[in-house]
Design goal:
Layout: H1 4-18, H2 25-41, H3 46-62, H4 71-86, E1 102-107, H5 114-126, E2 132-137, H6 144-155, E3 159-160, H7 168-181, E4 186-191, H8 199-212, E5 216-222, H9 227-239, E6 244-248, H10 257-266, E7 270-274, E8 282-284, H11 287-294, H12 300-310, H13 313-324, H14 330-341, H15 346-352, H16 366-377, H17 381-385, H18 392-402, H19 406-428, H20 432-439, H21 442-449
Parallel strand pairs: 1-4, 1-5, 2-3, 2-4, 5-6, 6-7
Antiparallel strand pairs: 7-8
Helix pairs in contact: 1-2, 1-4, 2-3, 3-4, 4-11, 5-6, 7-8, 9-10, 14-16, 16-18, 18-19
Length: about 450
């Protein structure tokens, strides 16, 4: 997952800091040395690391932080503030023109994920009430146009293409006229890439830019290439001029050097981060929230936003009534499971919960939830509504129908009964949640998340 290596190192450093009642100047220098090593190992640009550490030291020493009552917490706050600044400071949104259509041009090297990102971007923009049009201007890569059309079909978003010409300026201008006639207020242009930056690629992009005058040029870069991603961003910005960056494959980048270097080097903000293979796996890049995640402070706002987007209000109201009646059954469990899946992987959601990063020994395999869904779907309506009827022969039939074993079904039913009990106690006792979190048995949690 993104930043895993850096995150664990920095969290260990900040944990030590918070526990100290007093910090000497020598202690601070040792802590900053560890921070410096952690950032360098994360493939962050050396000059950026040097400046980052210098600023923290100056602030900690210059504000009498070490003499305060909570020096450790004060230093942690300074580290977080500087991390936020390093990541870009504030969220930067797309500048939609008041006179549509807004033209967004995606650029980048071949293999960075431009075509898929075009679809993801159209999907997230549509959720803002816009009506996007995808435009296929990658006329060189085999099947690039077909790939964009498949993405558009999956999302039910129109795609404009013209396979009778390789003149991308002509295609883009035709697409703009089409968008105006069909009332599409956002145009996302997928351009061609190369295996490396060359003069031919840049000239084509410059011609396209001068002809259609896009409102936004977003550079798509593969974050897993580390410092290469930063160098690519710098080159595109100097040659073409970009307005923002989309980092792809951030879920596979355990170091995070690109995300922590690219803003300082290019002066251009990271606007979006792609965090998975699904077309819904993209999010607006929030520097403050990302800094909190890296330091293990969680990201509750992102959980709330994901939940608001994924959960059906009517279903939530039905569940609330059922909880009050203490009649939570397997049909309710299946409904909640499916809505939770819309929020993303369970392991990624877990990482957003403050303090949950400390549970290193709790692993959640999302494939196990597919098995749970298969088990419940193999039951009759009566069995889902009244699990008490599940005798041995019924469990054997369900095991055969779901491709699991009776032992797995027994473990799942045990974890479901635990969930039922928790739900009842939560609805009958307002203070139960605090005690439940305090006394939660880790073995039960493991069984709940991985029952095979």
């Amino acid at each position: 997952m993104a930043f895993d290596g850096l995150s664990s190192r920095l969290q260990e450093i900040t944990r030590k800091l918070k526990g100290k009642a007093r910090i000497s100047e020598a202690d601070l220098k040792e802590v900053l040395r560890e921070v410096k090593l952690a950032l360098l190992e994360a493939d962050v640009n050396y000059k950026i690391v040097k400046d980052f550490v210098k600023v923290i030291e100056e602030k900690a020493l210059g504000q009498d932080v070490l003499k305060s009552l909570t020096p450790g917490q004060q230093v942690v706050k300074i580290v977080k503030d500087e991390l936020v600044d390093l990541l870009g400071g504030e969220e930067t949104k797309i500048n939609f023109t008041p006179n549509p259509p807004t033209v967004i041009m995606l650029v980048g090297l071949q293999g960075s994920g431009k075509t898929t990102t075009a679809g993801k971007l159209a999907n997230i923009i549509r959720k803002q009430g816009k009506k996007p049009l995808l435009v296929a201007c990658d006329v060189y890569r085999p099947a690039a146009i077909k790939q964009l059309q498949v993405v558009g079909k999956q999302l039910d978003i129109p795609v404009y293409s013209n396979e009778n010409t390789k003149d991308v300026v002509t295609i883009a201008k035709q697409a703009i006229n089409t968008a105006i006639s069909k009332l599409n207020d956002v145009i996302i242009i997928d351009t061609a890439g190369r295996l490396q930056i060359d003069e031919v690629l840049m000239q084509e992009l410059k011609n396209l830019k001068s002809s259609i005058k896009p409102h936004e040029i977003l550079l798509v870069v593969d974050s897993m290439t580390g410092q290469d991603a930063v160098n690519i961003a710098d080159a595109f910005n100097k040659d073409l001029g970009i307005d923002g960056i989309v980092l792809t494959k951030l879920d596979g980048d355990t170091r995070g050097g690109a995300a922590l270097s690219v803003k300082k080097i290019t002066g251009r903000p990271i606007k979006f981060a792609a965090t998975g293979e699904k077309l819904s796996d993209i999010e607006v890049f929030h520097p403050e929230r990302m800094a909190s995640r890296i330091l293990g402070m969680g990201d509750v706002l992102s959980i709330i936003e994901k939940a608001e987007e994924a959960f059906d209000i009517e279903e939530a109201e039905k569940l609330e009534k059922k909880l009050k009646k203490q009649s939570f059954d397997l049909e309710d469990y299946l409904t909640q499971l499916r809505q939770m899946k819309k929020m993303g992987s369970f392991s990624s959601i877990l990482k957003l919960i403050p303090g949950m990063n400390k549970l290193k020994d709790v692993e959640i395999d999302d494939k196990e939830f597919i098995k749970i869904e298969a088990i419940i779907c193999s039951m009759t309506k009566e069995e889902r509504r009244n699990p008490k009827v599940l005798n041995g022969s019924r469990r054997l039939r369900i095991a055969k129908g779901s491709g699991t074993t009776v032992e797995q079904i027994n473990k799942f039913m045990k974890s479901f009964e635990m969930t039922q009990k928790m739900m009842k106690e939560m609805t009958s006792n307002k203070g139960m949640m605090k005690r439940m979190m305090k006394n939660m048995n880790m073995d039960d949690l493991k069984d709940f998340s991985k029952f095979n």
